[in-house]
């Protein structure tokens, strides 16, 4: 029997394997012991014996005086010769029997197909038809009468089935309703998350706008104060530059008078002495002019600390403290503000 070829022909390996394990006589899965014929086909020994008995009606038992018999393989019609032992002389196919055991074990661990009735593992021919209340497992009648559940309390399987199915249906309804509520809460939380993000972005934009406006006011005030300092600086420097020019003119006149005085001092004659005149100056007696000049000029002077600009110092500590103390309006202040607006509206 070629198992591999049969498995490859079918899409499901287990279904294909099951087809290979079907007896051609009873059309059921091989029941142990399984015998292998000389043509390499397999039969249940019981089915092989039925075929042999039908083909050899006079062969009664292994103790019969008849020396043997023959029958044809139902699969290939090959003639099978048997000795006095009959089908009991055929070799058992232990490989197929092991495959059957593995297949049944695998099937017992798989979930049942829809509409398929489960069978008892302890009593393979018994269907599961009662429910053990004590052990909380379904079982068969044989287990209750002779098996592990003979001392347990049992109930009709259909009654327990209907009760638990009704309870399960109610639980499903409650779970579905709970899931709907959870989904609603999730949607609300998602909406809240989106609103939080949008409101946060709006608050950030508003805060940036207010700080930009405050920065613009500070920049405008700074420009105004700088302009005032610049204007004061121009006035003072212009005044001082004017004084410097006048003092330079006086210095130049004084220098010429000194030269004239020195020249006059060099004269030995009285007439020559009195005739000395300062250059580039109005004609006048030199001595009185020099004497008057020696008394010092009467030009204007600047006061002490004239160059000081301390009057234009601005204290920003209070403003800096106010900026550091800036914070968001509290909810209580907002409530008081709105309460005040409502009272004004009522009045």
Automatic annotation (TrEMBL):
<keyword id="KW-0963">Cytoplasm</keyword>
<dbReference type="InterPro" id="IPR027370">
    <property type="entry name" value="Znf-RING_euk"/>
</dbReference>
<keyword id="KW-0479">Metal-binding</keyword>
<dbReference type="Pfam" id="PF13445">
    <property type="entry name" value="zf-RING_UBOX"/>
</dbReference>
<dbReference type="GO" id="GO:0016874">
    <property type="term" value="F:ligase activity"/>
</dbReference>
<keyword id="KW-0862">Zinc</keyword>
<keyword id="KW-0436">Ligase</keyword>
<dbReference type="InterPro" id="IPR013083">
    <property type="entry name" value="Znf_RING/FYVE/PHD"/>
</dbReference>
<dbReference type="InterPro" id="IPR017903">
    <property type="entry name" value="COS_domain"/>
</dbReference>
<dbReference type="InterPro" id="IPR017907">
    <property type="entry name" value="Znf_RING_CS"/>
</dbReference>
<feature type="coiled-coil region">
    <location>
        <begin position="179"/>
        <end position="206"/>
    </location>
</feature>
<dbReference type="GO" id="GO:0030018">
    <property type="term" value="C:Z disc"/>
</dbReference>
<dbReference type="InterPro" id="IPR001841">
    <property type="entry name" value="Znf_RING"/>
</dbReference>
<feature type="domain" description="RING-type">
    <location>
        <begin position="23"/>
        <end position="77"/>
    </location>
</feature>
<feature type="domain" description="COS">
    <location>
        <begin position="265"/>
        <end position="329"/>
    </location>
</feature>
<keyword id="KW-0863">Zinc-finger</keyword>
<dbReference type="InterPro" id="IPR000315">
    <property type="entry name" value="Znf_B-box"/>
</dbReference>
<dbReference type="GO" id="GO:0008270">
    <property type="term" value="F:zinc ion binding"/>
</dbReference>
<feature type="domain" description="B box-type">
    <location>
        <begin position="115"/>
        <end position="157"/>
    </location>
</feature>
<dbReference type="InterPro" id="IPR050143">
    <property type="entry name" value="TRIM/RBCC"/>
</dbReference>
<keyword id="KW-0175">Coiled coil</keyword>
<protein>
    <submittedName>
        <fullName>TRI63 ligase</fullName>
    </submittedName>
</protein>
<dbReference type="Pfam" id="PF00643">
    <property type="entry name" value="zf-B_box"/>
</dbReference>
């Amino acid at each position: 029997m070629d198992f591999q070829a049969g498995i490859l022909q079918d899409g499901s390996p287990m279904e294909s394997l099951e087809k290979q394990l079907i007896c051609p006589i009873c059309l059921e899965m091989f029941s142990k012991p399984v015998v292998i014929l000389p043509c390499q086909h397999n039969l249940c020994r019981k089915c092989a014996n039925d075929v042999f008995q039908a083909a050899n009606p006079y062969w009664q038992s292994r103790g019969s005086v008849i020396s043997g018999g023959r029958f044809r393989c139902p699969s290939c019609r090959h003639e099978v010769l048997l000795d006095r032992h009959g089908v009991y002389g055929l070799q058992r196919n232990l490989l197929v029997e092991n495959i059957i055991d593995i297949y049944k074990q695998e099937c017992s661990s798989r979930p049942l197909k829809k509409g398929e009735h489960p069978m008892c593992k302890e009593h393979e021919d018994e269907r599961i038809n009662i429910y053990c209340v004590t052990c909380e497992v379904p079982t068969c009648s044989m287990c209750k009468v002779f098996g592990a559940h003979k001392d347990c309390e049992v109930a009709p399987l259909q009654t327990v089935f209907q009760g638990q199915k009704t309870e399960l249906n109610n639980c499903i309804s409650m779970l579905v309703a709970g899931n709907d509520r959870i989904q609603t809460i999730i949607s609300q939380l998602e909406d809240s998350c989106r609103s939080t993000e949008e409101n946060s972005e709006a608050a950030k934009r508003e805060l940036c706008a207010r700080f930009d406006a405050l920065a613009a006011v500070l920049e405008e005030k700074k420009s105004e104060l700088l302009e005032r300092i610049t204007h004061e600086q121009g006035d003072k420097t212009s005044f001082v530059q004017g004084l410097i020019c006048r003092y330079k003119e006086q210095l130049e006149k004084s220098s010429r008078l000194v030269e004239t005085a020195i020249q006059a001092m060099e004269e030995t004659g009285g007439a020559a002495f009195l005739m000395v005149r300062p250059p580039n100056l109005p004609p006048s007696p030199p001595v009185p002019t020099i004497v008057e000049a020696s008394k010092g000029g009467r030009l204007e002077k600047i006061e002490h600390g004239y160059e000081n600009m301390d009057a234009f110092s601005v204290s920003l500590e209070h403003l800096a403290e106010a900026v550091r103390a800036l914070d968001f309006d509290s909810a209580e202040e907002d409530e008081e503000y709105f309460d005040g607006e409502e009272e004004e509206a009522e009045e």
